[in-house]
Design brief:
By secondary structure, the protein is mostly helical. It has 13 helices and no strands. Helix 2 crosses helix 4 and helix 8 runs antiparallel to helix 9. The two termini are 17 Å apart.
């Protein structure tokens, strides 16, 4: 899924796919595979073949706010590439769309998240809040005995969450941070092994 989500085609990775990848990232073996693919995508960034790195950036942003906390430490090694992406310039000749500005904006946001400061904590909390409200919305619907209007709650949903009805199910399933999934990740015998012995971790991922 990570390879597909960061392929070189023009389509962006969809929410459902990124949600599934973030969920799998709490399993250490899958985490290693996901991180390895993203590291390789960033390493191949250049001004002609930029889409894979940009899509890797989108997925990294999602993992930083919805995945294990160790993601922020794991991708410190890619900061230099992300900084290069800030200066990327490209305008689509057929549409006139300024991809350079889009990549710049996303790169700056990811760099701020990688600082591992208050901004990262705020964005992770915001993601948890959205997930809780989505879950609460689902419970609210199940509790209704008649066809009453939920328009006021749905409007709040759209204003704060920025997602449509098609994304509700995937957003519900993508959240396990700070709970069982993250506990499993941190209790895994290889947790922190990548920082201590990166060459050994590379062997484990093959």
């Amino acid at each position: 899924m990570t390879e597909e989500a960061t392929s070189g085609d023009a389509s962006p990775p969809n929410v459902k796919t990124m949600s599934l990848i973030a969920r799998q990232a709490f399993e250490i073996d899958e985490y290693v595979r996901i991180a390895d693919i993203l590291h390789k995508k960033f390493a191949r960034f250049d001004r002609r073949q930029w889409r894979e790195a940009y899509k890797a950036l989108l997925l990294l942003e999602h993992l930083l706010t919805h995945g294990p906390r160790s993601v922020a430490s794991e991708f410190q090694r890619d900061r230099e590439v992300v900084e290069q992406m800030v200066a990327f310039q490209h305008i689509d000749e057929s549409t006139g769309f300024n991809w350079g500005m889009t990549v710049k904006s996303k790169s700056e946001r990811v760099l701020k998240l990688l600082e591992r400061g208050p901004f990262l904590e705020e964005e992770r909390e915001r993601a948890r809040k959205i997930a809780r409200e989505i879950k609460g919305f689902g419970s609210f619907n199940l509790a209704q005995s008649s066809g009453g209007s939920n328009s006021r709650y749905e409007e709040r949903w759209r204003r704060e969450g920025g997602v449509d009805d098609g994304d509700k199910e995937s957003l519900l399933s993508r959240h396990e941070p700070e709970t069982e999934a993250e506990e499993r990740h941190h209790q895994h015998p290889f947790h922190g092994f990548a920082q201590q012995r990166p060459e050994a971790m590379l062997l484990l991922s093959q």
